[in-house]
Design brief:
Blueprint lengths: L1 H9 L8 H11 L51 E6 L5 E7 L3 E9 L2 E9 L3 E2 L2 E2 L3 E4 L6 E3 L4 E10 L4 E10 L2 E7 L3 E2 L10 E6 L5 E5 L16 E2 L6 E5 L27 E2 L6 E11 L3 E6 L6 E10 L3 E2 L2 E4 L5 E4 L3 E2 L8 E5 L5 E12 L4 E9 L9 E4 L2 E5 L3
Parallel strand pairs: 14-29
Antiparallel strand pairs: 1-2, 3-4, 4-7, 5-6, 7-8, 9-10, 10-11, 11-12, 13-14, 15-27, 16-18, 17-27, 18-26, 19-25, 19-27, 20-21, 20-24, 20-26, 22-23, 22-25, 28-29
Length: 405
């Protein structure tokens, strides 16, 4: 069946549904549900035994037995997408063609009953039925039902069988929401009315949270913060290390300076290096970020303090450039040897010259006051809303966890 197999080979990525994804997955979820039925064709009563070995020659690159009604070698439109299934003998057949790509799908189950397979993509019709970006396919009847109300494209679906709903993400508007909305028997807004950018993935965590991923930095019903340096990066969630430690009880733990404002030096509030020795303080995160401002509180414990230091972004291993304001009010620049004033009673802010992505950083102390270096507080900021901002909202029994990328 040369034409069909050639068409399949040329259209990887557009033909997105196979029987193993439609039938097997759905029957596992709803065992009593019926599936697409195939009518077998009786084998012809031919006895080729007296011919010996039989060979076929011709202009083809694959061959299959005609075993089921509907098998054919019709050419699929190379400029369109298609909803496919497979006969039991492995041969593909199309259920419905689309005028765009099917990008995502999931089985919609409500009250323990399969409602159909939800299709999402950038199409405007499926099987001749007008459907803007989303449609419902019934595998029992092969009927396509449009889910009207959205304008745009659907990139991600999550069929929540526990709640009997479909959570839809993409680049669209509709139903009073943008880029994320819920379907049950109709469109329902989430408490936050979507996002201010496209949603590309939706998953459910083991604790019941729904996780959204995409290119957004705010909610659909909220104004994204535009102020600089207002979002705190949670250093407390990082793995903190340092070396060499001072060995002085109460002053060796590098976590002493997290969530501290430097107002109080002392045991449990200050981190000190070993005497007269350069060293480092490092934070390793489980996520990426782009800091815009670093705030350091120098220690004055027993006359000690950090004199010069540098900030290295990891894993790129790059020394960062900063601007800061001197005690005389002038703007200055530093990189490999940034200064901290001695016996300061407040913090010193350092603004990153370049916006650089990282998931870890290290502060190397190269010179010190008194017997050794140390710090009494550290804070890290970035512009606007953090790309890892987690907003937990609860409406009835539905919980959502919002993540940006």
């Amino acid at each position: 069946m040369r034409k069909l197999s050639s068409s399949l080979a040329s259209r990887v990525g557009k033909l997105v549904i196979y029987s193993c994804l439609i039938l097997t997955a759905l029957l596992c979820i709803v065992p009593e549900a019926a599936a697409i039925n195939f009518s077998p064709i009786a084998s012809p009563n031919l006895d080729l035994g007296e011919l010996g070995r039989v060979a076929f020659a011709g202009d083809f690159d694959s061959i299959s037995l005609y075993e089921f009604a509907g098998q054919n070698e019709n050419t699929l439109d190379p400029n369109a997408g298609a909803l496919l299934t497979r006969f039991p003998n492995g041969v593909f057949t199309d259920i419905a063609q689309t005028d765009g790509n099917i990008l995502t799908m999931c089985p919609f189950v409500a009250n323990g009953t399969l409602q159909g397979v939800v299709l999402g993509g950038n199409f405007t019709s499926v099987g001749g039925v007008a459907a803007n970006g989303i449609a419902l396919f019934n595998p029992n009847t092969s009927v396509i039902t449009a889910l009207p109300g959205l304008t745009g494209q659907v990139y991600s679906l999550y069929c929540d069988a526990d709640a009997g709903r479909v959570i839809v993400g993409g680049s669209f508007t509709g139903g009073g929401a943008s880029n994320a909305i819920v379907w049950a028997t109709g469109w329902t807004n989430m408490p936050f009315a979507g996002f201010n950018g496209p949603v590309s993935s939706i998953v459910k965590t083991s604790n019941g949270n729904i996780v959204f991923g995409g290119k957004f930095d705010g909610l659909g019903n909220a104004t994204t913060p535009k102020e600089k340096d207002v979002q705190v990066i949670p250093i407390s969630s990082a793995n903190i290390t340092s070396n060499p430690a001072s060995g002085i009880p109460g002053f060796s733990d590098p976590r002493n300076i997290i969530c501290k404002t430097g107002a109080t030096d002392g045991s449990g509030n200050t981190w000190l290096l070993a005497n007269n020795t350069p060293g480092f303080w490092q934070a390793n995160f489980g996520f990426g970020f782009q800091p815009s401002k670093l705030r350091l509180y120098n220690t004055k414990q027993d006359g000690r303090g950090t004199k010069t230091w540098r900030y290295t972004a990891l894993p790129i291993d790059g020394i960062m450039n900063f601007t800061y304001t001197t005690p005389t009010g002038e703007t200055a620049y530093c990189d490999a040897q940034c200064p901290l004033p001695q016996n300061n009673v407040t913090y010193q802010d350092f603004h990153f010259v370049n916006s650089v992505g990282m998931n870890s950083f290290r502060i190397d102390i190269s010179a010190w006051y008194g017997s050794g270096g140390g710090l009494s507080g550290i804070e890290l900021f970035e512009n606007g809303m953090s790309n890892r901002t987690q907003i937990r909202l609860k409406a009835n029994i539905h919980r959502y966890l919002l993540l940006c990328d």
